[in-house]
Amino acid sequence: MSDDRVVAMVVLSALLAGTVLSWRTILAGRASRRWPTVQGRIESLEVKSIQRGHHGMGTYKPTLVYTYRVQGRDYRGSRIRVSDFLTIGVQSRRQSQAAVELDGFFPGSPVTVHFDPLNPSRAVLRPGVSSSQYLMGFGFAILLPLLAAAFCFLFRP
Predict the structure, then answer these.
(1) For residue range 67-108, what is the model confidence (pLDDT) as tens digits?
(2) DSSP states of 55-78
(3) Is the separation of the CB atoms in 122 and 115 below 8 Å?
């Protein structure tokens, strides 16, 4: 197999993995709208600088910790949205833009926590799917077959 075909297979594999991950996250986000809720409490919040690039440009991420109780057991959560582990829509080049994600949350204040009834340690404060997550899911879903077709055309016998 030629080097070009290996690269093509790696690219297609990465796109397939991205497509599956994006759509699983979208489905989980949609399911989170139906999760039961409990009252929790914001323990801490801040906008963290997570990366410094050239010319002093940084990347900022809103972070918070909240506590809640389900069926007599205490939990700590940090996800605002289901997609937070992907950091889609929660990182920003501007600190003020990242801080917008924390609007309405204050240390010590009560908060509604949406938790997965099958795994109560999995919880979010804002259920649903962000528009950027849909955009990423559709982008992968469109790009994957287009590149697969292009590679088939380029590498046809």
Answers:
(1) 999 999 999 999 988 876 555 445 666 777 778 888 889 999
(2) GG-EEEEEEEEEEEEETTEEEEE-
(3) yes
| Claim to verify: residue 24 and residue 71 sit in the same structural domain | no
Sheet of 58-70, strand order = 73-77, 58-70, 37-52, 110-116, 119-124
Let me know whether 56 and 78 are in one domain: yes
DSSP class of residue 35 equals: S
Q: Is 44 exposed, middle or buried (0-12, 13-18, 19+ CB in 10 A)?
A: exposed
Same domain, 41 and 87: yes
pTM of the model: 0.74
Beta bridge partners of 69: 74
Who contacts 19 (Cβ-Cβ below 8 Å, separation ≥6)?
137, 140, 141, 144
Write b or e for each residue in 66-77: b if 16 or more Cβ atoms lie within 10 A of its Cβ, otherwise e. bebebeeeebeb
Based on the fold, state whether residues 154 and 140 are members of the same structural domain: yes
138: which DSSP letter? H
Please tell me the total number of residues recorded for the chain in this structure: 157
